[in-house]
Design brief:
alpha/beta; single chain; 9-stranded mixed β-sheet; 8 helices
Length: 308
């Protein structure tokens, strides 16, 4: 079903087409100015670091619901192999990984989603074909380093994790920002915690058809108005699933990526960072989260690091 009129009106309101030029392929990452990076650097006080990636292994969250998006499969090519045949000489080990680029912690490229024949910034669908994305691929993002802000919606709501498809609104994000004592500024990256990684850690597997919390349509204008450079969640789908309107499939993806050019990430591990933020009351940090620049890919694996 096409976007209903009210969502098309919202898409037009938050559109960034042409804002950074007709050839722009980075979207809201353009908001990361030197000042935003300096703000992130100024947030570092103790030098404590937190890895924000889930493991890249075959025990990952992919279940086959999305054909071909397999969990990382690691294979050794050689182990302590002597190149000259003499074990006393140079020996080496080598390996390969086969995986979906969005199988674990990742950013979506702006080429990932479109509708009505268009991708972000009026790029036609034919920019993506069997050879990949000739425009708007993940390699266009470049370095991603800025101030990160954790909005812990799960802790705000007093739950370890949501057991239903709770749709996170702009009001929720506002309340979490007040809880953190931080004002979101242009060029910040917002990390939204729902507690879903805690669920996975307990041995449950989130299937694509399971109800999961996530960003709802009510979050879109909030992120636009605050000029957020990117947003990531600890969930499989990113937005609420099943969607708020069963007749409209993944509208947050459509408007975020295609209209706003808002970079979005999924399957981030936020629990350890959240516990530390709750302990010391500081919810800001320097975030380094550059994806692998896989040429023409529509998504990019990333191993983000938060430094407080």
């Amino acid at each position: 079903m096409p976007l209903p009129r009210e969502l098309k009106d919202l898409a037009a309101k938050v559109s960034n087409w042409g804002r950074w030029g007709a050839n722009d392929q980075r979207g809201t990452l353009n908001l990361i100015t030197p000042e935003a990076v300096q703000r992130g650097a100024a947030a570092v006080r103790t030098g404590v670091t937190f890895p924000l990636s889930i493991p890249y292994d075959d025990d990952g969250p992919q279940t086959g619901a999305i054909p071909g998006r397999i969990n990382p499969k690691h294979t050794m090519l050689m182990a302590n192999a002597p190149f000259t045949g003499d074990i006393a000489d140079f020996c080496t080990s080598d390996d390969i990984v086969e995986m979906g680029v969005q199988a674990a912690t990742h950013w979506d490229a702006l080429a990932h989603v479109g509708y009505e024949g268009k991708l972000y910034n009026d790029v036609p669908f034919d920019a993506v074909n069997d050879s990949g994305a000739s425009k708007l691929g993940i390699e266009q993002y470049g370095p991603i380093v800025t101030r990160g802000i954790l909005l812990d919606v799960a802790r705000l709501k007093g739950v370890e994790y949501f057991e239903d498809n709770y749709a996170i609104t702009g009001d929720d994000l506002d309340a979490a920002a007040r809880q953190s004592g931080i004002t979101v500024e242009s060029g910040d990256i917002v990390l939204v915690r729902t507690g879903q990684m805690e669920w996975l850690r307990r041995g449950d597997k989130v299937r694509f058809n399971d109800p999961t919390p996530g960003l709802g349509v009510g979050s879109i204008e909030w992120l636009h108005d605050r000029e957020v450079a990117a947003v990531a969640t600890d969930t499989l789908v990113f937005e609420v699933w099943p969607c708020e309107d069963p007749a409209v499939l993944l509208p947050v993806h459509m408007i975020d990526l295609r209209d706003m050019g808002l970079v979005q990430g999924q399957l981030w591990h936020l629990d350890d960072l959240a516990a530390d933020c709750a302990s010391d009351g500081r919810y800001e940090f320097l975030l380094a989260a550059t994806p692998l620049p896989i040429t023409h890919a529509v998504g990019g694996p990333v191993a983000p690091t938060a430094t407080k």
